[in-house]
Design a protein that fits this description.
TEII; alpha/beta; Thioesterase; 9 helices; Rossmann fold; 254 residues
């Protein structure tokens, strides 16, 4: 496939499966980057080709300006994945990435390119607002937040240079997530599957269940033990749900 320069910047294809009937496009959480989804890509099986988005300002894109507006980020992601939508595709995002995936789904649906499934993890429904201001904290406050959610490699906290490199990205992404305001619009029509941790301080079970308000399609909520990064413990179970929902038979039955 001939790819555009924009797509080359944004899209990571760690395990090419050119014959897979479905693509799964994955969106990282706040402070994260495309390699977070390498295990998903490796273990998705022959029927699903995984693409992972690399946002600006991190890793090999570290010299590009960060994007602190979630709507702008979603618009850029949408443009970047267009060349890859030559077959049925689904979207997955965790935390901030879930909201980005939702906004990408809205944009694609408006272009008559609706995903076959939207998977959202560790994030309240867009219609459920919270007044969160973590991005306004000082560095110590940001670090305390990172530690409390247990989603960051603990070695980062022991290496000052690494921590100083990560903090602006985390603050930027929290700003994008916390200043996002859902705008009423047409609901999606695809199935939505939501995953949440029972003890996630960022998402109540009710807030996760409210994703059903954003689609006319079926909605399923899976609740696991654990906090915001319940995915770490339940990765295999979550991936099994995703791949089970993306078999050709499952997609065609809708």
């Amino acid at each position: 496939m001939s790819m555009t320069t924009t797509s080359d910047l944004w899209v990571r294809r760690y395990h090419p499966r050119p014959d897979a009937p479905i693509r799964l496009v994955c969106f990282p959480h706040a402070g994260s980057s495309a390699p977070y989804y390498v295990p998903v890509s490796a273990n998705a099986g022959p029927g699903v080709e995984v693409l992972s988005l690399q946002y600006p300002g991190r890793q090999e894109r570290r010299n590009e300006p960060l994007v602190d507006d979630l709507e702008v980020l979603a618009a850029q992601c949408t443009e970047a994945i267009l060349p890859w939508l030559d077959r049925p595709f689904a979207l997955f995002g965790h935390s901030m990435g879930a909201t980005v995936a939702f906004e990408v789904a809205r944009r694609l649906t408006a272009q008559s390119r609706e995903p076959v499934h939207l998977f959202v993890s560790g994030r309240r429904a867009p219609s459920r607002l919270r007044d969160e201001q973590v991005h306004r904290r000082d560095d110590a406050g940001i670090i305390a937040e990172m530690k409390s959610l247990s989603g960051t490699d603990t070695r980062v906290f022991d290496e000052e240079d690494l921590l100083l490199a990560v903090l602006p990205i985390v603050r930027n992404d929290y700003k994008a997530a916390e200043t996002y305001v859902y705008a009423d619009g047409e609901p999606l029509h695809c199935p939505v599957t939501a995953f949440t941790g029972h003890d996630d301080p960022k998402v109540s079970v009710e807030e996760a269940d409210a994703w059903r308000e954003h689609t006319t399609g079926p909605t399923v909520l899976h609740v696991y033990d654990g906090g915001h990064f319940f995915l770490t413990r339940h990765a295999a179970a979550v991936l099994a749900v995703i791949t089970g929902s993306l078999t050709p038979a499952a997609v065609q039955s809708r």
